[in-house]
Amino acid sequence: MKDIFIGVDFGGTRIKLGIVFQGQIIADANIEAASELSFEQRLADIALEMKHLLSQGAYRLIGIGFAFPGIVNFYTGRILSKYVKYPGAENVDLQAWAKVNFGVPIAVENDARAALIGEWKHGAGMMSTDLVLVTLGTGVGTGALVNGAPLRGKNFIGGNLGGHSTINFEGSICNCGNVGCVESESSTWALTQIAKASAEFASSKLAELQIIDFKNLFELAAQGDALAITLQERCLKVWSLCVINLIHAYDPQKVIFGGGIIKSSHIILPYIKEMLDKHSWIGSGDVDLVVAARPEHAGILGVYELLKQKITDNAIELR
Length: 319
Known about the structure:
Largest sheet: 5 strands, mixed
CATH topology of the largest domain: Nucleotidyltransferase, domain 5
Protein name: ROK family protein
Number of strands: 12
Family: Belongs to the ROK (NagC/XylR) family.
Organism: Dyadobacter chenhuakuii
Pfam families: ROK
């Protein structure tokens, strides 16, 4: 019988689950995020999916990890932020949920910080002591590793709010309440509204789409659609300035990029490098810009590493 760990990564469109054995993903699954539903509803579905995974092999579950898109107290396992996704999450005692349903401990961490740790231990950040991770997609997530330790801070927001830093002080109110955030200026959830506000929208092929995402934006830009080209340029500039701010704040050896849109890294990374050379205090030769090596499972591997840490701290062996 294998002693295994199950990680759950709450993404923007899918919730990913993975069984980890000795640092390797040996089985995985995913379900629809449906993040508009209550957190307790999603937990019930997650528990069913976990039990289904466990039924497929000779496994003994010894721990669970959640990578969650919000502010998390890693030490207590409580979700602190009341946000637009997974309503009611801040009211759930996940330590108790894990004990009642599975009889095991749980580690809970912010999803971007968990992905950072997964890439640090198992991916593009191995052997590094100072890293920044940026995920681009439904939102913009960030995490920072400083002097070989994940940055958390007094209120557990350290390194996590790059997507909610102000990039346009005359911008619109973000869904977080701040003004002109990176996310509200350039993310999937804001893109349709930004496009519709343009005078060119009616004549653009973007107007034929019910929902505009980065995949079809970049495709239409490549086909020469004028508005798509303008919006792509806008997004690239916003992301570049966000990265410059993160580099100025944390001075990393590498910036690791993840998220669905990073499939267009051949467009994104050269643009950011050029902006770094023009506008940063350091040049692109002083910091490596790299694509995530474990984009599908970094969050799961990250909470696996954190659970190992917690169990080690409690003098219990995780094999």
